[in-house]
Amino acid sequence: MTERITARKNPLLQQVRRLLSSRKEREESGLFAADGTKLLREAIAWWPGLHTVILSDGVSMEIPEGVRVVQVPEDVMASISPMQTPQGALFLCRLPEKAPFVPKPGMLLLDGIQDPGNLGTILRTADALEIPVALLEGCADPYSHKTVRASMGAVFRSQVVQTTWQEAARALGEAEIEIGVTALSEKARDLRQAPLSQMAVVIGSEGQGVRKEILKAVQRELIIPMNPRCESLNAAVAATIVMWQMKQ
Predict the structure, then answer these.
(1) What sequence ranges are listed for the domain tRNA/rRNA methyltransferase SpoU type (predicted)?
(2) Fewest 10 Å CB contacts: which of 32, 135, 167, 246?
(3) Nearest of 199, 129, 144 to residue 168 by alpha carbon
């Protein structure tokens, strides 16, 4: 049965605002919020933890049984939506259980990717190319609404793995999978000459690159060949090139 809420200070709507703005709130409540009808369709199709759906007047969708459905006036939706032009749907999902890190050849490790747009784009591309990805320390929240939107629903289709460098390095070492890093250094070699499909490759943060701790621990540094007048590439673009080369 669909509920109707018209008060902007309703507890549910206040909770939505907190979930949209606070990673701590998401982690403590075990919920995250996302917006948009397209992403809602992805969640309905792929995510078992769909919890609550809020729809603007005039917007209708087939929602699975057992999911709370709330209808609100358009002005109320506008008051809680993170979008300047709301699509008429906001929804809450349960956070998943922590997925174990499984070392695999041809995988990507993300070190301190802090921009949710970059992170979401990388997850979207990895989902499209079927590349395993693990998030190391310092990455943006994969369940922030900005990351979810940039991933175009990839976070619903492929569970995000979060781990530490120590855990990843140990597991990859035990599995005898070589780790490489993308780096702008004199030691770095053209990534086209490396067996990327058999390696795990670390992509570093937008501003700092890969942590020194990781650089010191690995044997192979990789560079994307480019015009010498160009200093570097966007982290999501660099990750896409690495993933594409992994598939060759």
Answers:
(1) 108-244
(2) 167
(3) 199
pLDDT, tens only, 156-196: 999 999 999 999 999 999 999 999 988 767 777 888 999 99
What is the distance between the alpha carbons of residues 15 and 27, in angstroms, rounded to a whole number?
13
C-alpha span between 162 and 61 (Å, rounded): 32
- Going by C-beta distance under 8 Å and a sequence separation of 6 or more, which residues neighbour residue 27? 95
Check: CB of residue 115 under 8 Å from CB of residue 208: no
Q: What crossing angle do the helices spanning 116-129 and 235-246 adopt, rounded to 10°?
A: 10
Mean pLDDT within 34-52: 97
Condensed to tens digits (0 to 9), the pLDDT of residues 99-151 reads 999 999 999 999 999 999 999 999 999 999 999 999 999 999 999 999 999 99
CA angle 221, 213, 217 (to 5 degrees): 50
- Length of the chain in terms of residues written: 248
Cα distances from 8 to residues 29, 74, 76, in angstroms, run: 21, 11, 6
**What tokens appear for 68 in the block?**
């709370």
CB 70 within 8 A of CB 5: yes
Are 199 and 206 in contact by the 8 Å Cβ rule? The answer is no
Band of pLDDT at residue 226, cut at 50, 70 and 90: confident
CA nearest neighbour of 179 among 154, 196, 155, 157: 196
Instruction: Give the other-Cβ count within 10 Å of 70's Cβ.
Output: 19
Q: What are phi and psi of 41, to 5 degrees?
A: -60, -40
Beta-carbon contacts of residue 86 (< 8 Å; ≥ 6 apart): 35, 56, 74, 77, 78
